[in-house]
Amino acid sequence: MSHPAPPVAVIGAGVVGLTTALAILRRGVPVTIYAQDPDAPQASSVAPAMFTPYAGPAPDRLRRWVESSWRSFVTLAARSPESGVSMSTLREAFYHRRPTEPWLADLLQPRPLPPRPPYALVRDTTRPAIDMLVYLPWLRGRATAAGAALVRRRLQRLHDAFDAGHRTLVHCAGLGAGPLASDPAVRPMHGQVVHAPNDIHLGHSIHDDAAAPGSAYVFRFPDRLVIGSTFQPDRPEPGTDEPTLDDILRRARALLALDGLPTPERLGAVRIQVRGAARPARGSAGVYEDVRLEAESLAGGRRIVHNYGHGRMGVTVSWGTAEEAADLALRP
To answer: Whose CA is closest to 73, among 54, 56, 90, 88?
Structure first.
């Protein structure tokens, strides 16, 4: 005897899709999650990730998403350390002074440090650090434990999920959202990182605000360092290459030398692994985080809620956009 499909389907099992599924499940509504291959390398599994908002959508919406996600991650750090979320010190080195929105400064509580040429501003903040090698499997486990069905299937079109009996689709396909939604604004932004042991005894994370080929950073996690990165437009395939990895390490060592680390040349001498994937950016030239979060009503009471295009801040705003997507999906 066949059973009717749950009313809601979530398309995509990255951090945005899994978080959105959890937000819906917590409201007592069953969910089916569709993913081509949840175990394949993707932006969510490659991301370091440090809580870092980027300007993109309307400021009021961005603030709401960031503040909601902040509360969720701070709670996870305090109550569920097994999630891979912890509070961590991040040292930021800016080549140019830039204002921080007052509401964001209230969250981050920046602590200025003496400037160090060529940086115009150096500061410490305490913010959530999310170990994606732990957090993504934890999210999936929480979703399935709450009753989500995980279906390994590549949808050729969004309406395939309607054909399976679902009434509402929440579209969180990340980079795959472009062809599924016929959205030419979605584009890949490739990044590469190096995982290495913390044999330099770094006590904090650090990054700068360099532009091309990407900011330099060394993010500290309990069992390793994650060193990055690159920001290569229109490169969709996963993978890494040695010249790029060597350049990442060179820039990160220079950053640590300016920070006063006595032995930066040892950074990355031993590698645990290297990882590369494309972020799901969205927007016109110079815009990478134009998140699409809106409902589309169709005939017969069917509904598609689009929640994609998060670019570099998919983890950072994941809980905020998930709650709004759940509101739209379950609205009468």
So the answer is: 88
